[in-house]
Structures are given as structure tokens and as C-alpha cells.
Specification:
Blueprint (H helix, E strand, L loop, with lengths): L1 E2 L1 H8 L6 H14 L3 E4 L2 H13 L2 H12 L4 E4 L3 H14 L3 H13 L3 E2 L3 H7 L5 E2 L2
Parallel strand pairs: 1-4, 2-3, 4-5
Helix pairs in contact: 1-2, 1-3, 3-4, 5-6
Length: about 130
């Protein structure tokens, strides 16, 4: 399944409303051996969200490194073809740019998209199965 940045950020930020649920869900999913997939875009999204939210850039960098070195995550590269596909899909579904990349990866791999973003979940549901942790 493709897991977007909202889930990772909430798992890493103790003050987030979904923190406990996200940590538990990620831990259980990793333990089950279920593949967790994300576009490489996940790394800057998580780093920047955490750095902006905490005003501590080093926390953002550390979070991205922790995720990158996690053995439980498969990062998918974005090439010109998948970027063009994300652009078309995102425009058609009226998604944010980054969100269109997550949906494109999920659609291409025929797997569910896991997110806390309800707008994304609603709009992407016409193309892929969407879940919350």
C-alpha cells in the first residue's frame, strides 16, 4: 500500500492528533510484512513538514533519514513519464501537486492509498481504494 506523508508526520510528531494511532498502525503494518510504498517525494515532504511545524530543521532532517533507512519502506522514483501522468491525473481530480504523485503511484501499482487527508481520500477514491490508518 502507498502511505502518504500525513501518516508519517503524524507518527513522528507527538503533538499530532493522530500520533498514537499512526504509530500503532505503522508498527503493526511493518510487523505484518505488508509492503509500505511511497514516492521519493515523501522524504522532503516529511522533513519540511516537521521542520516547519517544530521550527527545528534538524528534526526534519533526522525524520527523513530515519524513514529513508527504514527497511520497511519501498521508495518509488518519479521520472518524466510518471510526473506527466501525475500532472494529468492531478488536474483531472483537482489534487494538490504532491498528492497527485501519491495517487499515481497507488494507481500504477494497483494498491490502496493510506492517508489522513480527507480531501485527498475523497478525490482519489474514484481511482484507488483509500484508507485511514
Amino acid at each position: 500500500m502507498v502511505v502518504d506523508a500525513s501518516v508519517w508526520v503524524s507518527a513522528l510528531v507527538a503533538a499530532d492528533v493522530h500520533h498514537a494511532q499512526s504509530r500503532h498502525w505503522l508498527s503493526e503494518t511493518m510487523a505484518s510484512g505488508e509492503p509500505i510504498i511511497a514516492p521519493v517525494l515523501l522524504l522532503p515532504e516529511v522533513a519540511c513538514a516537521i521542520a516547519r511545524g517544530t521550527m527545528l530543521p534538524e528534526l526534519g532532517v533526522r525524520a527523513a533519514e530515519e524513514i529513508r533507512h527504514s527497511g520497511a519502506l519501498r521508495l518509488v522514483a518519479l521520472d518524466a513519464t510518471s510526473a506527466a501522468e501525475a500532472a494529468m491525473l492531478g488536474a483531472r481530480l483537482r489534487l494538490r501537486g504532491a498528492d497527485s504523485v501519491y495517487v499515481t503511484v497507488a494507481a500504477t501499482l494497483h494498491v490502496p492509498l493510506v492517508t489522513w487527508d480527507q480531501e485527498l481520500a475523497t478525490r482519489a477514491a474514484t481511482l484507488v481504494e483509500t484508507l485511514s490508518p
